[in-house]
Design goal:
mainly alpha; 2 helices
Length: 116
């Protein structure tokens, strides 16, 4: 006995670039407040280390202020890239710290001008 289940047809697959720009804009809008929260937690932990604030509430790996600051930078960079993509530009990851330095350009050589 063969049982066939017939499902209704869904939307056809779109073959164009940038079809998820609205999702990128929504995620980019959420990453900015998340980055701010990470910065605040990092500043709280740093102030607790210096004795200016009450003890930090989180223990373990996330009890270090460096982790929170790095998370804030990463979330802010990801949000900027997603916002740029969502507004119609190419998806480009910001180059904050280039992995390999570019070679310096050679200085322009002065022209030799002949004396008459």
């Amino acid at each position: 006995m063969i049982l066939r289940i017939r499902l209704p047809r869904g939307r056809p697959v779109e073959r164009r670039l940038g079809k998820n720009r609205h999702v990128a804009l929504a995620l980019g809008a959420m990453f900015t407040p998340l980055a701010l929260m990470a910065y605040v937690l990092g500043c709280w932990r740093l102030a607790a280390d210096m004795g200016f604030a009450s003890p930090f509430a989180i223990t373990g790996l996330f009890s270090h202020w460096q982790i929170w600051m790095i998370a804030g930078v990463a979330l802010q960079a990801a949000g900027a890239a997603l916002n740029r993509y969502g507004q119609g530009s190419r998806f480009q990851i910001p180059r904050v710290l280039p992995s390999c330095p570019r070679p310096a350009k050679e200085p322009a050589r002065p022209r030799k001008v002949g004396m008459p």
